[in-house]
Amino acid sequence: MSKEKRLILLSLFTGIALMLVKFMAYFITESNAIFSDAAESIVNVVASSFAFYSIYLSARPKDENHPYGHGKVEFFSIFVEGGLIFIAGSIILIKSFYALIVPNAVSNIMEGFWLILSTAIVNFGVGEYLKRRGATLRSMTIEADGKHLQIDAISSLGLIAGLYLIKITQMQWIDTALSAGLGSYILWSGYKMLRKSISGLMDESDVAVVQEVVDVLNSKRQADWIDVHNMRIQRYGQELHMDCHLTMPKYYTLTKVHDVISDFEQSLNEGLDMPTELFIHADPCMPQCCHYCNVKDCPIRAEEYTKHIAWTPVNLPKNMKHFRDS
Predict the structure, then answer these.
(1) Nearest residue to 237 via CA among 7, 70, 47, 60
(2) Please, which pLDDT band fits residue 163 given cuts at 50, 70 and 90?
(3) Of the options 3.50.50.60, 3.40.980.10, 3.40.50.2300, 3.30.70.1350, the CATH number for the domain spanning 207-324
(4) Is the separation of the CB atoms in 26 and 35 below 8 Å?
(5) Spatial contact of 42 and 26, defined as CB atoms under 8 Å apart
(6) How many CB atoms within 10 Å of residue 87?
(7) Alpha carbon 81 to its chain's center
(8) In this structure, what is the dihedral angle of CA atoms 36, 46, 136, 125, given to the nearest 10 degrees?
(9) Which residues form the Cation efflux protein transmembrane domain (predicted)?
């Protein structure tokens, strides 16, 4: 079994155990706020189940129907998880408003306090572990699951503080206010996850990934990589797919062009900590490139090298050679 599957199973079994504890706390206390927390735990369990399937599917090799692999299913996983969180937040808010009309007293507060505290500690610890392992493994699904558990833990801590206030003040309306606050927080968290998944499905540029690629290219830059432009990057699960135009001396033979492109691909894959598939269009240099071309002993140089053009996330994606905007 892969590391990713083991991590998701850890999240799933943790979610089931904590969900049972939270519902136990709800039945003991009859607290709307605790019900809100328990309802979100159902989301954790369902989301982890779907995440397990998405990890399985994303690991499948490329095939004729999926030439880029199955990695995009991770964005669907985040979408489902975010959607479920959003729905849970909405239900919690509705129940909170109902509680304003039909209030009920909270009982056995301290028993609920200790049960919810224990779930918050476990959730935060497991969530932090999943976040770190997800970042290391470049798995958006695991990282999102870890963030979700920590959101759950933070909402539980707010709930604990509220239960203590109810205990010392005997103000029952605090329970309803807490429920509404937690519902709003959960709703906002679900929205952010939905936004992230839609961005990925729509191939929105990932600023952090683009910056990482640019940093690697600058650190590995060769003289005959005269110009890189029209760079586009897509993420499919734990892999990147990148295409760009690479300007080289126009007198290079086809064999030499092939060697330079191979070196470019190797350099990028060595510098990044995730596999990258590249599609590179070879461009010939032009006389206007000479002033920023650092190729030594060039037989066709029209003017001296006078300017170094730094590669940035702004100029590399543009579909133009750099002399046009330099």
Answers:
(1) 70
(2) confident
(3) 3.30.70.1350
(4) yes
(5) no
(6) 15
(7) 12
(8) 40
(9) 9-202
Q: How many CB atoms lie within 10 A of CB 220?
A: 15
Do the two domains 3-201 and 207-324 of this chain adopt the same fold? no
| Residues 60, 275: Cα–Cα separation, whole Å | 15
Of 119, 162, 106, 150, nearest to 17 by C-alpha is 119
pTM score: 0.59
Q: Say whether 153 sits in a helix, a strand or coil.
A: helix
* pLDDT-based confidence at residue 201 (cuts at 50, 70, 90): low
Cβ contacts of residue 185 below 8 Å, gap of 6+? 89, 151, 154, 155, 158
Q: Which two tokens stand for residue 15?
A: 């979610």
CATH architecture entry for 3-201 = Up-down Bundle (1.20)
**Domain spans in the chain, listed from the N-terminal domain onward:** 3-201, 207-324
113 close to 49: Cβ distance less than 8 angstroms: no
- Per DSSP, the three-state class of 184 is helix
Q: How many residues does the chain have?
A: 326
Sheet-wide strand order for 276-284:
227-236, 239-248, 276-284
